[in-house]
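pasting for ref
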Amino acid sequence: MKPYATMLFRLTALLGMTPFLLHSAAAQLHPPEVRSLYPLAGRPGAKTRVTISGVSLRNAGSLLFDKPGIAATLVPQDPKTLPAANVDSDGNPNVVVDFTVARDTPPGVYRFRIVSPAGVSSVGKWIVGRDIPEMEEKEPNNDLKTAQAVTLPMAINGRISEPGDQDVFAFDLEAGKAFVAEAQAAIADSPLDTLLLLRDAQGLQVAYNDDADGSDSLLVYTPKKSGRYYLTITSSVLSGGGDQAYRLNIGYLPVLQAVFPAGAERGKPTSVTPIGVNLSDTPITMTSGGNAASMPVRLNTSTGMTNTMPVLVAAMPEVTVQTLNTDMPHAATLSAPGAANGRFFRADGKPGGDIGYFKFHVEAGRRYLIDAQCQAIGTHGDPMLTLYDANGMKLDENDDAIGRDARIDKTFGGAGDYYVRVKETTGKTGPDLVYRLVISEPPPPGFSLNTETRGRVIGQGDVTMLEVNVERDRWDGPVTLTLADLPQGVTASTVVVPAGYGKGLVFLTAAANAPLGGFPLHIVGTAQINGQNVQHILNRASDWIWKGGARQSVPEPAELLTFAVGNALEVVLRTDAKELAVVRNQAVKFKVHLDRRVPYNKPVTLTVVGLPDGVTAANVVLQPNQNDGELEIKAGGNARVGTFAIAADGVVNHDMNVGLDRVTPPITLTVKEK
């Protein structure tokens, strides 16, 4: 079986190929995007009606989730009630969908895309919440006098609807019991930056929290006195609006804040202790199986299910540090390769628990990656790494190489003992500040693939192009790019990225009668490396979307790398050129025709994409009354010799913030020395 076959089967089964029915219309110029939804969450075992707002979502046909557990049923809408569509916009009607959550679905964030005639949307996020009663926030509830009375536990869906708005809830608490208020907003891409305030019966503030997990808030308070309390949720930056939604969970809720140790050696039983609020500290024995990179820890307590945290798994020795290794003489010994689990915490309560020293031995010429992990295991530490030689001389240092986590990539010139220090940069200390230190060998020489998907659609009868980047690591051979698992009516080019080259163009072509709908995007790179046939499937991409008032590229989840066959595009490029040849220090020209299928009265800038090093082409601007242009390709004296796939590209831009590429079919360019 091919190494990517299991992933292909799983993803295809998850996404499906079901086409959708729609009226014939030109594809929209704006790529489909999910911009907000309400409510943000639902309860396991229940059906929740969700309204999704965005652009280019008219006639939505299906939803694609990144993991199982949620069934989505689109609610039909009366076309007579929808806003009118035109060439530039589909009127942006909302999508209404019923999310039915299976009873045994784990709590957490579930990501989805919507397939519409304009393509596949950007990623939306929805929360499967705690299995507790839920209710809607109701105005007026803006102060203690109008506070909305609730019973515990409760999950509340609400909005901070305008700047300065605040929602207040009243309930009774028992002395000595840990009360938890958990605000979820940013985790589901709501722009709300939450702030939680807890007051007693006299209105005196007894606790507050602003940022616990990013901009989301988590308030924990154990009252000394039973009685009435008031919880306020608001925006910490005094913003507000219809898109500033939240999910607020309150009660004596279990919260898993860390697992210690946070790493396990593959195939060996490991005893881990849960750390958090309203939890038993009874250790759990876990054993990893297969090749999974992590084991999920989720506890079912008397007051409900906790959130999930990972225990990372590696095929190397793991040690757990229980002693105070806060200086070099007391450094803990670590294998190389190997992993250590520790905490930025001193059980004696004294300061200084934010440093850990480790000693390891290496042979001359060996290269190791040294990683300090907090973000990777879901804890709130911010680690920094410092590397020393046996005499205490500093050799290297790193902070925030991978998010908050640190990494040192070091080739050791001499054999001997070395020390690495792990430091918590914010000075925090606590039993939940778990970290993991990993010393590993780098992966074997090879390559990885990434791309930017942009519009995520190919029109019926049209062609689109993806620029695939080949990131090389100590290897420079040729890579063959192919597409697997394509649906009926869709074909793709096979492209060889030459040795030492960093990118290749992959073209998708849809037949005029290709079924409409979404399909998984499986770009596979194949190469011969050290005599072995190596395949890598593209699993890292960026999504070109509107975010925060500007166009941005955001990471795409590997499970939702998808494309769609949509309606025929509104503007396309054509050329009769199929093969071109150019000699160094010479030029070649070819003609391009712009097919305006709908009125489009703006200039179009023509460029050439995929050109090799040393080969250039000046842009050509087609004015609103022009449909034909000519592009000239010039090869410099040092132009890279070889055969390459190129295309003419026309940027279509109805909106100043949205520029979409419309490309010709692939052209084979051969660059000759003479």
